[in-house]
Amino acid sequence: MGKGLKANGKIPDLSGKVVLLTGATRGIGRNAAHGIASTGATLVLVGRSQERVDSLISELKQIEGCGPLQGEICNLLVQTEIRDLADRFNNKFDRLDVLINNAGAIFTKKIITDDGFERTWALNHNAYFLLTSLLKDLLLSTSNSRIISTASDAHVPGKINWKDLQYKNKWNKNGWGSYCQSKLANILFTKELAKKLDGTSVTANCLHPGFVNTGFSRNNGFIGRLLMFLTWPVQRNATKGAETIVWLSTSDAARQHHGEYLYNCKPRRLTKAAKNEEDAARLWSLSEEMTGTSGVW
User: Fold this and answer.
1) Is residue 106 part of a domain?
2) How many other CB atoms sit within 10 Å of the CB of residue 129?
3) Residue 262 contacts residue 270 (beta carbons within 8 Å)
4) Is the pLDDT of residue 37 over 70?
5) Is residue 179 annotated as part of the catalytic site, yes or no?
6) Quick check: 44 and 131 in contact, CB under 8 A?
7) CA distance 202 to 255
8) Residue 234: left if φ>0, alpha if ψ -120 to 50, beta else—which one?
9) Which strands, in side-by-side order, build the sheet including 266-267?
10) Separation CA 47–CA 45 (nearest Å)
11) What sign does the CA torsion over 206, 269, 184, 156 have?
């Protein structure tokens, strides 16, 4: 049972509330789904594989108190698929209490998506920005809704490569630079999003799950698997990694946080780059251009 999920001996009752979780079928997302299921909330689980989504739903149905479950298939690397996902969600639901932007990856090989973006950036940043923007009206119309984004302490060495965000001119070794840039973007996005939500009942926060042993590196062949094997002694399990997501999604106490970066359910100190308000505003404008969402906010 994750921290904050069980308050005063009782599991929070989120019956009637709707939670949308991306990256739901593996690692942190899968464990977050398990942690939230017992609250009775309606869980909309987004993954790329119908088989894995169906498997997760079968697991969750066995949890006492589990609410309605719905699977959605979406390749978050593709903006048209994200738009289709948002359209389906907006047509099916009249509320969104919790949006969890969790899907993410590191790619060691540089590949540009059909939309013209490097894959790490497309998945780890653009997908967060676009899906949140497309669900904005539903979030604003739902009292006390929450937006939660999975970031990482990988942002610490990161910098926004303004002259070449997509690394078209020079690739970074093993994709690490692009990944760190995307995680810094997650925090800057959250900071600017929180400013835009000031005066509403919606909160926006991001988090560091810790160095978690997940299927995260399976996209990257032998090197990725080897690195995860060598660093196994310092990794935490996915249940612990999902703890802050579950807490931010379900706890009344979590509502005090807005525009923050958390680790182990507590605010975490940010680097100077992650607190740069000018960069956050600049990134927001660029993100609107990259996702075709100018004027939404």
Assistant:
1) yes
2) 25
3) no
4) yes
5) yes
6) no
7) 9
8) alpha
9) 69-73, 42-47, 18-21, 98-101, 146-150, 203-207, 261-263, 266-267
10) 7
11) negative
Residue 297 lies in a domain: no
Residue 6 lies in a domain: no
Cα–Cα distance measured from residue 173 to residue 171, given in angstroms and rounded to the nearest whole number: 7
Q: pTM of the entire structure?
A: 0.91
Number of structural domains found in the chain: 1
The token pair that represents 185 in the structure block: 């973007």
- Could you list the beta-strand ranges (E) of the chain: 18-21, 42-47, 69-73, 98-101, 146-150, 203-207, 261-263, 266-267
Domain that holds residue 75: 18-291
- Per-residue burial over 142-152, b if 16 or more Cβ lie within 10 Å, else e, is beebbbbbbbb
Residues 6+ away with beta carbon under 8 Å from 163:
none
User: What CATH code is carried by the domain that includes residue 129?
Assistant: 3.40.50.720
Residue 5 lies in a domain: no
| Residue labelled with tokens 């979030």 | 139
> What residue type is 27 in one-letter code?
G
Mean pLDDT (the chain, rounded):
90
Per-residue pLDDT for 110 more than 70?
yes
Helix (H, G, I), strand (E, B) or coil at 203: strand
H helix count then E strand count, the chain: 10, 8
Q: According to the model, what pLDDT value does residue 240 have?
A: 86
Give the pLDDT confidence of 43-68 residue by residue, as tens digits. 999 999 999 999 999 999 999 999 99
Structure tokens at 251: 């706890």
Which of 128, 179, 261, 263 is catalytic? The answer is: 179
Q: Are 76 and 82 in contact (CB under 8 A)?
A: yes
272 exposure class (CB count in 10 Å sphere: 0-12, 13-18, 19+)? exposed
SS (H, E, C) 120-137: HHHHHHHHHHHHHHHCHH
